[in-house]
Write a structure and sequence with these properties.
By secondary structure, the chain is of the alpha/beta class. It has helices spanning 2-26, 64-76, 94-109, 134-147, 181-186, 235-239; strands at 29-36, 48-52, 81-84, 114-116, 150-151, 155-161, 164-170, 194-197, 215-217, 248-249, 261-263, 281-288. Helix content is 26%, strand content 18%. The chain is globular.
Length: 307
């Protein structure tokens, strides 16, 4: 019995060391896939969009080194557009805001159009019932815009590649009560190709069908821990209440078909600085002109049902 207990303790300690110091800091997951987008103009066919999120600057034992690596990889890969899905900071502090801005500045300096939305932590929301603090969210927006990052608050912006225009529609933070899908949709010219960006995927449910063939979100951190090898084994997938996709492509039951959404695992942490079998993620999506009907879900979408 003593040998068994010692073995268990050693295994748990090794797992803790791995989860705190190895996987989240040394093992970046470069997720790459193609996504067909109706109405995509020729200048964007074959161009790649990078997605990063959840830096959580200010979290104890934070992960800024991996943010730097993800940004460097996106630059080295020559992406045509960088999207940042919020939660730049963990707790409100002006120095943390400036640090977050410095981490993404290389994207702009490399000539990559960079577009962002804010997440719940950017409004000082540690949980959904916390009080919304506008001060640092406004300061973060101001500093990002000053650095050349376009921050969307229920708005849209055009991005040009090969002489052609793609629109990014950005939705405000759901937890902060800032999400207004109708306003973001109204900012996109009718029929124009668009990619949706939001922090929390809750807002995706409000997008009318046929309006979001490609939406991107984050917020979940993938659950930070997958209890078994393979995909769809995050604790979030096991204890979910209602429709939740911890990461990857969500099932078409989560939105109005044929809308589809991909959820990035993010880079930083929440509550505890650990990732096990749930690496930090840089997502790179190569856009393609459709050759036939566009699927309503992506490859490997989780089958999600009401809990």
């Amino acid at each position: 019995m003593r040998t068994l207990l010692v073995t268990i303790v050693v295994v748990l300690l090794a797992l803790a060391v791995y989860g705190v110091f190895v996987e989240p800091r040394l093992l970046l997951d470069d997720e790459s896939f193609e996504a067909e987008l109706p109405g995509l103009p020729p200048g964007w066919d074959g161009e790649t969009v990078a997605l990063v999120a959840d830096f959580q600057i200010g979290m104890w034992l934070g992960n800024t080194g991996m943010v730097e690596e993800a940004v460097d990889d996106a630059i080295d890969d020559g992406v045509a557009l960088a999207l940042i899905a919020g939660d730049f900071i963990y707790k409100p502090d002006s120095a943390r805001v400036r640090r977050a801005v410095e981490l993404v500045r290389p994207l702009v300096e490399a000539g990559i159009p960079t577009v962002a939305v804010l997440g719940n932590h950017d409004y000082s929301l540690m949980k959904e019932s916390s009080a919304v603090v506008e001060t640092y969210a406004d300061y973060l927006t101001q500093e990002l815009e000053r650095a050349g990052v376009r921050v969307l608050h229920n708005d849209a912006t055009p991005v040009v590649a090969g002489g052609d225009t793609l629109w990014v529609a950005g939705v405000g933070s759901s937890w902060a009560g800032k999400a207004d899908v109708a306003a973001a949709l109204a900012a996109v010219p009718a029929g124009a190709p668009r990619v949706w960006l939001m922090h929390n995927s809750e807002a995706f449910r409000d997008i009318p069908g046929e309006e979001a063939h490609l939406a991107l979100a984050a917020h979940t951190h993938g659950g930070q821990v997958r209890v078994l090898p393979g995909e769809r084994t995050s604790w979030l997938d096991i204890v979910r209440d209602g429709e939740v996709a911890a990461d990857g492509w969500a099932a078409d039951s989560i939105g109005a078909p044929p809308n589809r959404i991909y959820i990035n695992r993010g880079i930083g942490f929440s509550t505890v600085p650990v990732r096990i079998n749930c690496r930090p993620e840089l997502t790179e999506i190569t856009l393609r002109v459709p050759d036939g009907p566009v699927p309503s879900v992506g490859p490997g979408a989780v089958d999600v049902t009401d809990g």
